[in-house]
Specification:
It is a single chain. Helices cover about 30% and strands about 20% of the residues. It is of the alpha/beta class and about 425 residues long. The radius of gyration is 22 Å and the shape is globular. The chain binds inosinic acid. The site of inosinic acid has 20 residues, from helix 4.
């Protein structure tokens, strides 16, 4: 079976969990390649909702190995509670492996995240406050602490003391904060180390082996393309590489091992945190999408900013990820609008552009140019085949495929496993949606 990367084609929160869950069925391995507990993946099975921050959602299938790979930043406290939560529901985590090279988030990273956001004031990024940026900054500065050090008590204690001492003057205002008390941090993390030690492994060869297996790998992306550190709307981005290329860097497989890239997109757009959002709707339509789509963060509970679908963004996403197909979600949320709009280009001052401008994050006087399509009044949650959808809804989906230049393999009409419909059988098969 193919090795497939699942990426967010917008600003994250595209419901990638559901797509990974579908593709994980019959896979050898599911690998999370980047980000940390800023992510929140939700999967609904038999009416039961499972929320994941770090563990790949393939863990719901017995026999699928689930790897938290080198590119992930691991908050061990979050991971331990996630493991305990799954066990308490009778779900085995025996197949979990955590890379020795994954970096560890420490309390001082969360503190730094909070203080930096406070310092930025009106210019704050609107981070999730999980310490993600500071942990990746330490990795780039070559002073991060990794999983193999966490599980080695004497090495870990020395590294924590060294790192807390090194940032004492940087965080002078935080004197007395528990995050800066080395003894307390060491004691707290010793408990996590005990719990996580059995799962820590050198995962690069495991992933390489699975990539050659008959059943293949699903690479689980976190966040979304426009939040990529290099290719997103910098500086309003996360500090990792959610794009498909991140799967190679974050796991140690070469690009030739990857056979396809599924871009997951909502039928509209959302964004959490600050930064440019061309199709944002600050009116009753935006509120209606937020309420109908329950657009509140899985990780932070923050209301998401909502707007119409933007195919300038989707074309960009197709380009930088090499998307082989799209999985379009939340189609049910658009039920009941007389017309639905899709952005096809932007007007920036006097210019009209249909590709993502390099200065998007700072563009002034930008407005989207919309195409307006007929809506559909029918509830579509009970549809089980593409043909069950109203004609106007099908036209909308076909138009999205045309405008983005990528086949729509599947659409989602609700959160449960049965509410995923095949649109383009060839594209769906190539991506592994049809395997049992
Ligand atoms: P950080 O990743 O916590 O540093 O946050 C940086 C930016 O990425 C903020 O705008 C966050 O709201 C956004 N972000 C981070 N993780 C997610 C996610 O999983 N979904 C959506 N937005 C996210």
């Amino acid at each position: 079976m193919p090795n497939i990367v699942v990426v967010g084609a917008q600003w994250g929160d595209e419901a990638k969990g559901k797509i990974v869950d579908r593709l994980a069925r019959g896979a050898e391995m599911v690998v999370r390649y980047g980000g940390g507990s800023n992510a929140g993946h939700t999967v609904t099975v038999d009416g039961r909702t499972h929320k994941f921050h770090l563990i790949p959602c393939g863990i719901l299938y017995p026999g699928v190995t689930c790897v938290i790979a080198d590119g992930v930043v691991v908050d061990p406290g979050v991971l331990v509670s996630e493991i305990e939560g799954l066990r308490s529901q009778g779900i085995s985590v025996e197949g979990l492996r955590i890379s020795t090279n994954a970096h560890v988030i420490l309390p001082y990273h969360r503190l730094q995240d909070r203080l930096e956001e406070q310092r930025k004031g009106a210019g704050a990024i609107g981070t999730t406050g999980r310490g993600i940026g500071p942990a990746y900054a330490d990795k780039a500065a070559r002073c991060g602490i990794r999983m193999h050090e966490l599980v080695d008590p004497s090495v870990f204690a020395a590294r924590v003391r060294e790192q807390i001492a090194a940032r004492a003057c940087l965080l002078a205002s935080a004197e007395g904060d528990p995050a800066m008390d080395a003894d307390a941090v060491i004691a707290e993390y010793a408990v996590y180390a005990e719990a996580l030690r059995p799962y820590v492994a050198h995962t690069v060869p495991l992933v390489a082996e699975a990539a050659r297996s008959r059943r293949g790998i699903v690479f689980e992306g976190a966040q979304g393309t426009l939040l990529d550190l290099d290719l997103g709307t910098y500086p309003y981005v996360t500090s990792s590489h959610p794009v498909a290329g991140g799967a190679c860097l974050g796991t140690g497989v070469g690009p030739t091992a990857i056979h396809g890239v599924v871009g997951v997109a909502k039928s509209y757009s959302t964004r959490v945190g600050a930064g440019v959002f061309p199709t944002e709707l600050l009116d009753a339509t935006g509120d209606r999408i937020r309420e109908r789509g329950n657009e509140y963060g899985t990780t932070t509970g923050r209301p998401r900013r909502c707007g119409w679908l933007d195919t300038v963004i989707l074309r960009y996403s197709a380009q930088v990820n090499g998307l082989t197909c799209l999985s379009l979600g939340h189609v049910d949320v658009l039920t009941g609008f007389d017309t639905v709009k899709v952005a096809t280009a932007y007007r920036i001052g006097e210019r009209v552009v249909d590709t993502l401008p390099p200065d998007l994050a700072h563009a002034r006087d930008l407005s989207p140019i919309y195409e307006e399509l007929p809506g559909w009044p029918e509830d579509v949650g009970d549809a089980r085949r593409f043909e069950d959808l109203p004609e106007t809804c099908r036209t909308y989906i076909r138009r999205v495929a045309e405008l983005s230049g990528v086949p729509v393999a599947t659409v989602s009409v609700g959160p449960s496993r049965e509410q995923l419909l095949i649109v383009d059988p060839a594209a769906a098969e190539a991506a592994g949606f049809t395997r049992s």
